[in-house]
Amino acid sequence: MIEGTDGLFARTEEFPNPQARARLAALVGLDGLIDRLATDAVALLDPTTIQTWSKSVHGEVIPAVKALADRTPLFVFAGDVGVGKTEVAEVIGQVIATRTDADVTLYPLSLTARGRGAVGEMTTLLTRAFERISADFARARRGDGRASSLGVLLVDEADALAQSRELAQMHHEDRAGVNALLRGIDGMRTDGLPVLTILCTNRLDALDPAVQRRAAIIEVFERPTHTQRAALLERLLAGTKLSAADINVLAGATAETRDRPYSYTYSDLRQRLVPEIVLAAYRQGVAVDSVIADEVLARTPPTRPFEAMSR
Ligand SMILES: Nc1ncnc2c1ncn2[C@@H]1O[C@H](COP(=O)(O)OP(=O)(O)OP(=O)(O)O)[C@@H](O)[C@H]1O
Ligand SMILES: [Mg+2]
User: Fold this and answer.
1) Full-prediction pTM beyond 0.85?
2) 15, 179, 304, 305: which could join 104 in a potential S-S bond, CB 3.0 to 4.6 Å?
3) 259-273 per-position pLDDT tens digit
4) Which of these CATH numbers, 3.30.565.10, 3.40.50.300, 3.40.30.10, 3.90.580.10, describes 13-221?
5) 4 ligand 1 Cβ < 6 A
């Protein structure tokens, strides 16, 4: 990852922007999910939208809407490797920006990019990150509670930090990291900062219960279904000699089998299988067809599930 000038965040990103629009458009099978997440994010970050809704359907701002204002704008994205957690977290700001008239800034913080073991360093990093964001958004809310700019703080690879309490008792440095995280998100909520925090983790079960309890949404991402794999392959292999029927067969061949109880992930298809197919055809100087696709598939197995790897 490219470091920002202050070495704190990987480069921050402003939405809307054309690259993010393209990345969003390239995602397959997640439209409903992204739509729901963005709607909830806007409701949590901008109280006026939900107040307007309440007035129109109930004639007043109902107390339940006020209770929503106490909710922590925290999303947890959990799930296997290569299933779109980081990708969705990085582009959701684009959707939020196009639905509100606010500018949205992404602050990406990767906890493993800094190397393992340096837990004390991660704690400092996190504390500084929240300080920087608090300074940036201190004046973001206008008199009516509406925000002129919104933030998305992405804490990626969060399992490096947010260990469960039981584990953390053995390494109290870890606990310091979790505490810094809790202090940070609680502080932003108390100060009413219009910032959505997204935590990505492969291991929901290792995530501290105090962090889980605060999450407005815990979304578990899954490996793609047959339909989703077919849709992605159809896009990635457009213009080749593979027919719709060939693509459907290929999607079937990337499903789980009796000997291998897991299917191909989005990243297996997009970053491994299809690039390999293209390279194989290129090396042979022939067109991409189903023979080459099958041959490459046979030597390109899917990534093992995260659980299986850790056992
Ligand atoms: N729904 C999707 N449609 C198309 N491509 C996808 C989809 N989901 C993920 N991808 C692609 O798969 C790759 C991996 O996705 P991503 O980095 O978001 O995985 P992840 O869930 O964060 O995995 P990890 O746990 O390893 O960090 C990216 O290149 C991304 O563009
Ligand atoms: Mg990721």
Assistant:
1) yes
2) 15
3) 999 999 999 999 999
4) 3.40.50.300
5) no
